[in-house]
Amino acid sequence: MSHPLITRLAHLVTSRIPGQGHLLLLDGATRRLFDELAHALAEERVHRLQLLPHNRHQPGSVSALLPSPPAAVTLIDDLDFIDDDSLRTLLTAIHQGPQPRPVVIAAASEERVTRFATATYRVPPLSLAQLADYVHNRTGAPLPVAALEDIRRRTGGRPERIDELLDSYPADHWHRPSPPTPGSLRAAEEHARRGDVSTAWVHLTDPAAAAEGEAGRREAVEGYLSLYSGHRQRARELIRPGSVRGPLLALADWQPRQLLQRATEAAAHAVPRTDEADEAHALVMLGRTVITGATPKAVPRMHTDAGRQRLALLRGWVSLAHDDPLSAREHLRLRAGETPLLRIWQDAWLARTQYVLGDLAGAAETVERGLASAESRGVRLLEPLLLWTAAQTAGMRGDAALRRYYFSRMTVGEDAFLLQRLPAAMGRMIVTASSADLPVALRAGADLARIVALTDTQHPGFWPWEDIYASTLLRAGRVDEADELISAAESRHLPSGLSSLNAKNAMIRATIRLQRGEKKAGFATFDDAVAALEGRHMPTYLARVLFEYGQALRRYGRRSQADEIFGRAGEVYTEIGAPTMARRCAAERRASGVGERSETRLGLTPQEEQIALLVADGASNRSVAQQLTLSTKTVEYHLTRVYKKLGVPGRRELRGLFDPLDKE
Fold this sequence. Notes:
The protein is mainly α. Among the domains are: about 5-120, 3-Layer(aba) Sandwich (Rossmann fold), CATH 3.40.50.300; about 130-240, no CATH class; about 420-590, Alpha Horseshoe (Serine Threonine Protein Phosphatase 5, Tetratricopeptide repeat); about 605-655, Arc Repressor Mutant, subunit A (Orthogonal Bundle). About 60% of the residues lie in helices and about 5% in strands. The chain has a five-stranded parallel sheet, sandwiched between helices. Helix 27 (about 520-535) runs antiparallel to helix 28 (about 540-555).
C-alpha cells in the first residue's frame, strides 16, 4: 500500500526547517503504517518504540527507552501509554532541547497527549481501490470485487484487521479461482457517474465486466475514467469527438473552439431537460466566453441539480477570470447536497478565488479539502489545479515545508492533459521564481513558455503567467527578452480591460523602464499599476505590486517613498495573513535607512501628516504631489487614509483639526 499520508509525512519531515521539533499525532494509525513510514524515512535516523500499558505506571520508564542524543525521528505506538514524567521530558526535547530537536510521530487519542500536538492527521480506512492494491501486494493474487467487498465489510478497511483476516486462511486460499461478480460493468458505470473514479476502475477491471454488455458501453466508461485519471492518450482513443464526453475531452486539452463546436453539437442532440443537455449548454457558455473574451450576456437555464451546480462552477470560473472575485466566491461557495466530482472542480477555483481575495486561511482549507477528495476518488486530472494554488498559499503563509511538499507533487508525465500540465508548470515557475536558485527558475519559466507555444492558451484572465516569467528574466539581466514577452502580453491584455493583468504587466513595464534609465516614466508606471488594483478586492496582487515598487524606490535612492510604500505593502500582507512577507517589508524598510513608521499625535504617519497639513492649508492634490515629488494618485490614496483615520468627510473639515501653529 502507498498511503498518501505516508508520502506527505515523509516529505514534511525531510523538508522541515533544520533543528525544528514537532509532535505529529496519527489518529487511526496501525503498526503496518508505522512500518511503511519507517521505510519511507530510511535516510533519516529513525528510532521505533512500542509502548505497553505498564509503561504508564512506571515513572521515567519511557525516558529510559529514548536515545541520547535524540534520534532525528522517533516513531511511537502507542503514546497514550507514556508516563507523565517521560511525557514532560519528551516535550522538553521537542520544543526546548538542544539543536537539532526531534520529530516525534505517534499514535495517541488521550487529551493529556493530544493537546500538545503540533498537528494531528486522521488515517482513514482503505478505500476499495486501496484495499484491492493492498490485498494484491499481500497475496500476489487479484481478487474479484465480491471478495474485496466482503473483506472490507468484515474488517472496516483497517489494514491491521485485513492482515488478521488474510493470515487466518491457508496461503493458497486466495489463489483459488473465484466466481465473477455479476453486475460489475453496471457498478462501474454507477461509480463513474458519482465521480468515484478509483472504485469504478476496480469494478471495470473485474473479469465479469469484460463479459457484460456490449463493447461500446465498456469503452465509454473506460474513456471517461481515463480522462479523470489523467491518461490522455487512452482517453483520446476511446472518447469520440461527437460523443457526450467529447466537449469534456476538449476542455481537458484546453481547446476552446473544439469545446464550443462539440458542446453545440451535443446540445442539439441531447434529450431536453437531462443532465447531458444541461452539461452541453453550460459548456457552450464557457466556450463562447473564452473565445470572445466577454462575460456571458445570457445564462442558460438548468433543469437538474448537477446542471445547476455545474453552471455555478463555470460562472465562478468566468467571474474569477474577469476580475470579479466577489461574484466568483458566491458562485463557488460550498453548498449542501453537491456532486462530489463537481465539488472538486469548484474547490480548485474557489481556492484560487480565496487566494486572490487575500483569504489565505480559507484557500489553505479549500485546497486540502479538494486534494483529499481528489486523492480518495482517484481524480488525478484536477490535482495540479489544486496544487498550483496550494503551493502559492503555503508560501505566502510562510510554511516552507508544506510549499515544498506541494511542489514535489507538481510533476506530471508526458501522457497528461493541458489542464494538468499548464497549472503544474505555472506552479513550479511561481515557486522557483521566489527562490534564490535563478537557473532553476529560468528553466521552469522556459518549460512553461514551451507548453504555451504548443497550444493556444492566450485567453486573457484564464491562465496568467507572463509577468512571473518576465520578472525572472529581469532578475537574470535579460531585459530585452522580458520586454519582448511583456509587450506581447500587453497587446493581448490591454483590450480586455482586466485590472489584474494590466497592473501586473505595468509592474514589469515599470521595471524595464527603470533599468533603461527612464526613471520618471518607470515610477509613473508603477503608480499606474498600484492605482489599477486599489479598491478591486485583489489584495494579494496589490501587495506584490507595492512590494516590487518599494524595492525599485529603494534601489534608486528614494528612501522616504520606499519606506511609505513598504509600509503599505506590509499592512496588506499582515491583513491577509502573510507574516513572512510582512517581515520582509519591515526588513526592506530598515534597509532603506528610514525604518518603521512612527505615528504623530493624531495617529498619522509622517507622510500622511505632511499631506494633511498642505491640504489643510489650501493646497490642491496636484500641488501637494509637486511639492512632495509624489504622483497625484499617491496623494489621493494617502488623503483617503487621512480622512478615514481622523473621521472627517473632506477637506473643509480637515482644516478645523489643524490650528495655525500646526500649519507653520
